[in-house]
Sequence to fold (249 residues):
Amino acid sequence: MLKILIVEDEASTRDLLKNMISQSFSDIKIIGEAESVVDGIKAINEGNPDVVLLDIDLTDGNGFDILENTKQKNFMVVFITAHNEYAVKAFRISAIDYLLKPIDINELSDALEKCRKQNEAGELNTKLDILFSNLKSEANQEKKIVLKSSDSIHVIPIHEIIRCESDSSYTTFYLKNDKKLIISKTLKEFDDLLTEFGFFRPHQSHLVNINCIDSYEKPHGGLLVMNDKSHVPVATRKREALFSLFKSL
Fold:
């Protein structure tokens, strides 16, 4: 039985979440609710929840204030936000789950299913540290991404990623200093995540850090030579976009 605490200052959203959970999840128990930072801290410390559905913007502060003042972070968090695009970007690269208002039942189900299966409560402090760091960092080069391999969680500065390569449902990250990580997610997921941080997908199986390109070679249909001396093919349909990108640099 998964124990959930709802911290949300809008009564209508609290009621919606309670109705969704009670009607759709028989193995989940709502142990309480709170609408402020003070009440949220008290409810977490006293209720020992497995999962906290936590609104970012509260009347007397925000969800981050609650987490910074909670004694033991032995629970998982799913943030709730209305339109904070900047925070959503930080959540994604910090590997923290979130829900956008208005709440969608399918997205809620996906988030709770991940909580049920992964039980990542022990990783919360690490992820929150990275989240707070990413929220404070203005430059993309200062931001970090959280990556989970089969046996560990890795915190990688984005500027240290040279390229990513697809292998079916896995993605291999090639990093500076000849390091590499194999992550069990598709390249498309990282394409969506990293494009705004200076990455380009020249081929269906490759994603590269623009700042790590040494040169472009025309023979063999077109190849990018990267800082690590690796060669990445450029698909014919991607050449025009690549040349436009070079001109904008």
